[in-house]
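Supplementary Methods, section 5.1.

A reviewer requested that the exact input to the structure prediction be made available. We therefore reproduce it here, unchanged from the version used in the analyses.
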Amino acid sequence: MTTPSPRASASRAAPGGATARDPLASRPMPLHDMPGHLIRRLHQHGVALYAAHANGVDLTPVQYAALHAIGAWPDSDQSTIGRAIACDKATVGAVLDRLQGKGLVARSADANDRRTWRLRATPAGLEVLAQLEPRVAAVQRELLSPLSGAEARELTALLAKLVQALPGSGEAR
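The structure derived from this sequence is encoded token-by-token as follows.
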């Protein structure tokens, strides 16, 4: 039996020394090294933490984000709030309908443009915000607790940089 020449073997070798016949020759990136997978897992954990900390308050994370944005920018219009929380027009409309239905947000027609709705948190909405803000802050601290303060700030800055680079990112700050 003849042994293939080193040159012939090298032509069939894949990265990591695997050969063309080796099923592991074109190994994909390990799942736990994929940023998308890691971000998804961290998001799932963040949502679970929010649910645990917001227990007893009937507000989803997206509804909280919208109410928070409306509280921060009273009299903003629906489009501005949608951009601030990264929701499309239909989704933000549905979120605002739910918040209004819960008595947490009031809509009023703009004095200069009757097609534009101005948004304000109601007293009940402001009360819910006051109740949730320390809980949401606790979620953020718990989510970042394995990191040092400097690492937490760096991760937050890097995530913000990634979000700002997204196509169509108009997220208000």
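Confidence is low (pLDDT under 50) at residues 4-14. These observations are discussed further in the main text.
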